[in-house]
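Researcher: Here's the sequence for the chain we discussed earlier.
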Amino acid sequence: MKMILVFSILFSLIALPSLGELTDADLNQIRLIVREEVKTEIKAEITASETRMKEYIGLKLDNVNNQIKTNNSEIGAIRTQMNVFIGIPLAIITLLFAWRALRDRANDKQIQALIAENEHLKHQQTITP
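Model: Thanks. This is the structure I predict for it:
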């Protein structure tokens, strides 16, 4: 019986604090603690999200820069091809004009020679009547 009495008193003493009510100050302190924990969790989540976004944007920028480099090299190749396709016909046309000019000069020389010979013959005819 003594043991039952001792155990009942012991269990009553252990259970007494659980019967106490929380005051408004206790609730406010609990709210502050919860808010601080939530704030730190939210800050950690925001920081992690920002880090992931920065990495993602960095990867996308790298991809865009690589695409720009590829496009620039392709544009350079196209410009080279265009220069060849424009340059060759221009060179051919220039050569044709130069050949024609040389031919015209040769014809002019022949004409001048014929004119000079004609003048010479006229001069001989006028001298020998």
